Amino acid sequence: MTDTSCKRICLWSGPRNISTALMYSFAQRPDTQVYDEPLYGYYLKTTNAKEYHPGAEEVMADMECDGLKVIEMMMGAHEKPVVFFKNMGHHLGDLDRSFMLNAVNLILTRHPAQVITSFAKEIPNPSLLDVGFRAQAELLDELNEMGAETLVADSNAIVQNPESYLMRLCQRIGIPFYKEMLHWNAGPRPEDGIWAKHWYKNVHASTGFGAYVDKPLTVEPRLEALLNECIPYYNKLIRASVL
């Protein structure tokens, strides 16, 4: 049964976005408890991603890999009145989405060229499943069909003006904005998943969202086919962005 005493924010991001920075931002709020990718173990256990994700066995040994139990935790009681779950959209697999009716669902996207270029530095041959655009676009359709509360955010727009964007985002969610959300201490944080050592080097060096850098929207020739697959899904997502 869903505990109704807290407001849940479910972030459904793709990889190599600013999802970790956004999680750190929400962790600065005095009223908010954050969780880092609670469905990652389930995703690794149920897909072949375990064969090439760094530290996969360590991750699965460290966390709950039963997706239904993870959702029970997410929908249960929490210590603070606002709860922020940083999730990857493609980690959902075949799980029933009906629990999302009890949350504000925030889909976070970024131009595929930027995602693919960054992701390929860690996993050289990413697939459409790895980068998550199709999963996010399909999730958007499902959320709209069920009438769940859904927002779509553009990572680049957040970085261009973090304070203004976060103020609007908090207003749409129905929570107060805190200036503390704009800054955090550099280095690893207690909310990090065990995989942070493989993926969070850049964000650990940060103390905020940083200056926006207008990066090229191109990829290596070998990755162009993947980029072309992702673009229609990205366009669908970005058209739904209202913030």
3D structure, described in words:
This protein is an alpha/beta fold and 243 residues long. The protein has one domain: Rossmann fold, CATH 3.40.50. The protein is built from twelve helices and five strands. It has helices at 19-27, 40-46, 56-62, 67-75, 112-119, 128-131, 133-146, 155-160, 162-173, 196-199, 201-204, 224-239, and strands spanning 7-13, 32-36, 82-88, 104-109, 150-154. A five-stranded parallel sheet has the order 2-3-1-4-5, with helices on both faces. It is globular.
Distance between the termini: 32 Å
- Tell me which CATH architecture applies here: 3-Layer(aba) Sandwich
Helicity level: 40-55%
**What Rg is obtained from the alpha carbons, in whole angstroms?**
17 Å
Q: Stretches where pLDDT falls below 50 for ≥5 residues?
A: none
**Helix/strand class:** alpha/beta
- Quaternary class: single chain
Strand order of the largest sheet: 2-3-1-4-5
Number of helices: 12
Largest β sheet strand count, sense and barrel closure: 5 strands, parallel
What is the total domain count? 1
How many beta-strand segments? 5
